[in-house]
Specification:
- It contains 3 helices and 8 strands.
- It has about 160 residues and is of the alpha+beta class.
- The chain has a domain at about 60-160: Jelly Rolls (Sandwich), CATH 2.60.120.
- The protein has a 4-stranded antiparallel β-sheet with strand order 1-8-3-6, with no helix packed on it. A 4-stranded antiparallel β-sheet has the order 2-7-4-5.
- The longest helix has 20 residues, at about 20-35.
- The chain is rod-shaped and about 125 Å long.
- The termini are far apart.
């Protein structure tokens, strides 16, 4: 009868050899696995609370004003204060106009003579250039010419909801 001998008795592992290193690594891994077993599982993630603003229905408005230094309408309030306004687009169709954000700036006499190339107390809006506006404040328009000038405004707001 043949006896099976344990190969480790025939070839004992050498300290620092491949077999010894593999055994030490397996023992270290087993120790890490045991240590992980004692750590409690993490709590499931809480649902992320994201604030949502319900703006309600979107409203769109459009209007065209006529302004002129030669008539009783040289300054127009294009857009009033609107905290629900998302954005607006302003465009002049005939002559340049000056866009201002306060009544005092709109009343400045330099605006009416701006067509002569002088400075203005506001933004000079050229003809046929649409300007997007992303503010909720009041916006005024001042004519720079005696020729009647059409100024178109399109505004997009959220209904109070």
């Amino acid at each position: 009868m043949s006896t099976v001998t344990d190969p480790e008795t025939l070839f004992p592992p050498k300290t620092g050899g491949m077999v010894d290193t593999a055994r030490k690594r397996m023992q270290a891994e087993a120790g890490q696995i045991e240590a992980l077993g004692s750590i409690p599982a993490p709590e499931p993630f809480a649902r992320l609370q994201v604030p949502v603003n319900d703006h309600g229905t979107e409203l769109a408005r459009a209007r065209t004003f006529s302004v002129s230094t030669g008539n009783n309408n040289p300054i127009v309030e294009l857009l009033g204060q609107d905290v629900n306004r998302r954005n607006a687009v302003i465009m002049t169709l005939d002559e340049p106009v000056v866009i201002s954000f306060s009544q005092q700036a709109a009343d400045d006499p330099r605006n009416a003579i701006n067509a002569a190339g002088l400075s203005a107390n506001g933004f000079v809006l050229p003809v046929n250039v649409p300007v997007p506006v992303n503010c909720q404040g009041v916006i005024y328009c001042t004519a720079t010419s005696a020729t009647a000038t059409r100024v178109s405004v399109m505004a997009f707001s959220y209904a109070e909801g």
